[in-house]
Design a protein that fits this description.
Strand content: 25-35%
Shape: globular
CATH superfamily: Spore Coat Polysaccharide Biosynthesis Protein SpsA, Chain A
CATH class: Alpha Beta
CATH architecture: Alpha-Beta Complex
Largest sheet: 8 strands, mixed
Order of helices and strands: EEEHEEHEHEEEEEHHEH
Structural class: alpha/beta
Number of helices: 6
Helix content: 25-40%
Number of domains: 1
Length: about 210
């Protein structure tokens, strides 16, 4: 099945302190690593970038929107019409492995409408109001989801037709009636949110190469 990836890298990095997608990670930048792994598993890749960013070689470039969902739609507009599977991946998760990409692709090939990596929630979760704990949330049936997330292209396009917003694309596909399945995620597939996360990513990368 023809597969393309949309690598979302259009954020300004407000919490990180700078545009984290261009931060160095090993011999590459965060963005370069994410694009390299996605390119190895897909027939084509769209990098969704800030308007002022230079275009990476070997991929299609699109300019991001005001929200993450708008940036995904900008990427979708550059995905050829005959593509059957679209993967949406955050460049801020640069340690996602080749195997993780393959797992979500295989789940779509097996019949799912969407596939997302997930790891069990291990922390105790509390619901709070005005800094007061009002409930402890049972975690037995909760998971934390990651990217890359894979979808049947036609369904992902339909899910975005009314220009909705959500924190991930699986939410939009679920709302559109799609069947989304879980595949095993990776603990090392951390999301770079604050500057300290980059130091952790570098340490994990060094351990993996040791």
């Amino acid at each position: 099945m023809k597969t393309w990836a949309i690598v979302v890298a259009a954020g300004s990095g407000t919490r990180f302190g700078t545009e984290k997608q261009f931060a160095p990670l090993g011999s590459e930048t965060v963005l370069e690593r994410a694009l390299r792994v996605a390119s190895a598993q897909c027939d084509g890749v769209v990098a969704v970038l800030p308007a002022s960013a230079p275009q990476p070689s070997g991929v299609t470039a699109a300019t991001g929107g005001a929200t993450r969902s708008a940036s995904v739609r900008a990427g979708l507009a550059s995905v050829p019409a005959d593509v059957e599977i679209v993967i949406v991946h955050d460049a801020a998760r640069p340690l996602a492995s080749h195997e993780l990409f393959k797992r979500v692709i295989d789940a779509i090939a097996a019949g799912a409408d969407g596939a997302v990596p997930a790891i069990p929630v291990v922390d105790t979760l509390k619901r709070v109001e005005d800094d007061h704990v009002v409930a402890t949330v049972a975690r037995d049936d909760l998971v934390a989801v990651q990217t890359p997330q894979a979808f049947r292209a036609a369904l992902l396009r339909r899910a975005h037709e009314s220009n909705p917003d959500a924190t991930d694309d699986a939410t939009l596909v679920e709302l559109a009636g799609g069947k989304v399945v879980i595949v095993p995620g990776e603990r090392a597939n951390i999301k770079l949110t604050v500057a300290e996360d980059l130091a952790l990513a570098r340490a994990l990368l060094e351990d993996d190469q040791a």
